[in-house]
Amino acid sequence: AELKKASKRLTCHKRYKIQKKIREHHRKVRKEAKKRGRKKPKKDPGVPGAAPFREELLREAEQRKQRLEELKQKQKLNRQKEQEKKRKLEAKKNAAKIKEKAEEKESSGKSKAKTNKLPDKNSKKSFCRELRKVIDAADVVLEVLDARDPMGCRCPQLEQAVTCSGGDKKLLLVLNKIDLVPKENLEKWLNYLKKEFPTVAFKSATLMKDKTMVRFRRRHARVDLSRTTECFGSKCLLKLLHEHGKTQNKAIQVGIVGFPNVGKSSIINSLKGVRACNVGLTRGVTKSMQIVHIDKQTKVLDSPSIIADPSNNALALALRSIIDTEESGSAEVLEGVDAILNHCSKQQVMLHYSIPDFRNTEEFLTLLAQKRGMLKKGGVPDIENIAKVLLCDWTGAKISYHSQPPGSQRPPPYLTEDKIAEMQECFNLKNLEDENNATVQALKYPSPANSIIFQSAGMTNGTIGENKEIEEESEWEDLEKSKDGEEDDDDDFTETDDDQDDVEEEEEMDVQEVNQIVSRTLALALASLTHDFLFSESERSNSLSFSLDKTADEDDAYDFNTDYV
Q1: How open is the CA angle 146-147-150, to the nearest 5 degrees?
Q2: Which residue ranges are recorded for the region named Disordered (predicted)?
Q3: Overall pTM > 0.90
């Protein structure tokens, strides 16, 4: 039961006693005031009725009052005017500051537009460019797959680019997060994938020590982190890479690629033994190629995530898209959650989240938000945020779900028997199978009843390298070359200006001679007025036509020069 508030009611004896104390206190204060000689100010008695000039005195008093009121009003108006002036000045200052900021933004925008600005690191083009760098530089490419949906993590464009690149470039599949699927399902996937590419079972370490962190000794009890930092499959993978390096007789570069949140950077940290790369639940943490030296013979290249093509279905875009859930719109997130729920068993989802039956996705999110206490003002369920949390759970390592491999082995068209044999040579597949079996036996797995059955949507199309980017890069190079060419042309123009000046001087001399001839013929025509008038007139017309032709050439030469002024 809730405690009631204490009552403010008093007994009559106590109330009367308080009142008596108050009266005594007031009496004491009045006596002290009399002793000090401080008396209350007397009220103005006014003008007596029998006083002479009473009306004049009253009039003067009223006038005095009016003057005082007018003074007060004037002072009040002056104060208001001063306050208005201050406000106007402050408003002008604020407006000037806003204008300055706007002008600065405009000027900076213009300067950015004028200067050749490099593309943003978060843009899709930069991700594709960095990914292409890793693929081209790597001798061995590791395609990282999430063991919960391996087929959905495979990118046909990437596999085709590696297998058809020529040379001795190899492609390996790394099946990560194997501790989140049942044991039987993991064995099925290993048997399916090894028929196409060499596949390594891997469980990366979830908590790594950072070299840059300062170690503090604390007195409280130690927490056993051995289970969380334990890694499985790293020895097998390093052994494979070293064997391939020996066959090549050189230090090899290993590129690690894959879709977001499959554990690319975590695998590098596990191979290195320390936290060499940043990891996180947010998608697209790695934005550029990073080089990590594992040992003298092996160098690992971390890459940005593969960008899922917009033509993929809603499920693939929800789980494999590079766009962060915090930045994406509510409609996209809700569509992604709806696609995930449609590809799962409804009863298993209800058991996992301990939620009653629901009719649609919105009702499911409402029930989940109420259960987890994610409410807005007024107790309204926060559907948008709970949808983002659910997406992060499904791409992270919180939820255990599994998908079944296809019933029949149908390799993609780019994977011919010759290509499969080429990818598998130089690797000891028997030792790889034994190492994978040892890794599978060493781990603990969730039971099939606790793992949600998931229907995979098949391979996810991705954009590895766009022709637009190559064209843009060539355009940047052409622009730089054109700038250099313009500078050279300016030098050429300065050299040819002297020749053009000589030509102009010669043309001016010709024009002067023609003008002299014209003036002479005109003088002879006006002076003689003889029968040779017609003859002189014909000479004049010919000379005029000749002069006009010359002036036209002169104008053309001048226009030609003005193009270079």
Answers
A1: 70
A2: 1-122, 463-512
A3: no
